[in-house]
Amino acid sequence: MTSTPVHAIPERPTVAVLGTGIMGSGMTRSLVRAGLDVRAWNRTQDKAAPLAADGATVTETAEEAVSGADVIVTMLNDGLSVAAVLAAAAPGVRRGQILLQSTTVGLDATTELAQRAADLGLVYLDAPVVGTKQPAEQGALTVLVAGPSAVRASVDPVLDAIGQRTIWVDEAPGAASRLKLVVNTWVINLVGSIAECLNLAEGLSIDPQSFLDMVKGGPLDSAYLQGKSAAVLSGDLTPSFTLSTALKDTRLILAAAERSGVTLDLVAASANRFERSEAAGHGGEDMIATYYAGRPAEQAGD
């Protein structure tokens, strides 16, 4: 794979955001607030349309979005989605544009997408983000980046707009995606632990709030524990990160673990819980809906 020279990037680059779901829409608004010219596109047009009121230019096609852009951001569902969208956008790309690939796609897809980018003459940055809906809306994500250091200054205005912290992991694409899988392992195991504590408390006729009050402010407490538990107890499972997307990421983690000879029992159990919760109709809810996998069968869909 040969390196692609970056074209001259202006101080305030024009950005194309391909994928405006929960994360992409928040990132788009953050880019607009930073004063950047942003084109937004989504396969489902009604998800992109509201961004026009925020100052983004909403385009009908991916090709139109990338035409004339300096930086292309992809925030989609998986590697296949990114590959399909890049193919659709291909007539509008030009050599030297920077592709900031922020979808969590796993190891094999990262390699494949880097090659697709090279074939299109794009400078590929493997750049998954850490954070959910609120940090995306606030421009407070952590961005993990692997790619050529020569483009850092060119892409800094974009990274500074969407994130409060950028970690340059390596020069070679793939390193950032590997680190993201480790981060997601922590998150997935944590959310499963929260769900199981709530399940057991209810099963033992203990008010779950008494558990939360007991740990509050101590070394066992966390904002994540309190926030996710509050979502369950209030019944408001509006997604910051959907359960179905968490299941997708869990499968990517397990595939990477198998390839590296590592056994991840907790992640495998989390995948099983996510699958049961998704089958009960909770896939579009927040990932803490894994809580429903631990309830009695007759209550799992409640």
Description:
It is a single chain. This protein has 302 residues and is an alpha/beta fold. It is built from 12 helices and 9 strands. Strands 3-2-1-4-5-6 form a 6-stranded parallel sheet, sandwiched between helices. A 3-stranded mixed sheet has the order 7-8-9. The protein is globular and about 65 Å long. The model has no long low-confidence stretch (mean pLDDT 95).
Strands, helices and their partners?
Blueprint: E1 15-18, H1 22-33, E2 38-41, H2 45-48, E3 57-58, H3 62-66, E4 71-74, H4 79-89, E5 98-101, H5 107-120, E6 123-126, E7 129-130, H6 133-138, E8 141-146, H7 152-162, E9 163-170, H8 175-203, H9 208-215, H10 223-234, H11 243-260, H12 265-282
Parallel strand pairs: 1-2, 1-4, 2-3, 4-5, 5-6, 8-9
Antiparallel strand pairs: 7-8
Keywords, please?
302 residues; alpha/beta; three-stranded mixed sheet; 12 helices; 49% helix; globular
Biggest β-sheet description: 6 strands, parallel
Helix content: 40-55%
- Give start-end ranges of low-pLDDT stretches: none
Number of separate strands: 9
Give, in spatial order, the strands making up the sheet with the most strands: 3-2-1-4-5-6
Rg, nearest Å: 20 Å
Tell me the strand percentage band.
5-15%
Mean model confidence by pLDDT? 95
- Compute the number of helices: 12
Global geometry = globular
The first-to-last residue Cα distance is 51 Å
H/E element order? EHEHEHEHEHEEHEHEHHHHH
What structural class should be given to the helix and strand makeup? alpha/beta
In short:
49% of the residues lie in helices and 13% in strands. The protein contains twelve helices and nine strands. It has helices at 22-33, 45-48, 62-66, 79-89, 107-120, 133-138, 152-162, 175-203, 208-215, 223-234, 243-260, 265-282, and strands spanning 15-18, 38-41, 57-58, 71-74, 98-101, 123-126, 129-130, 141-146, 163-170.
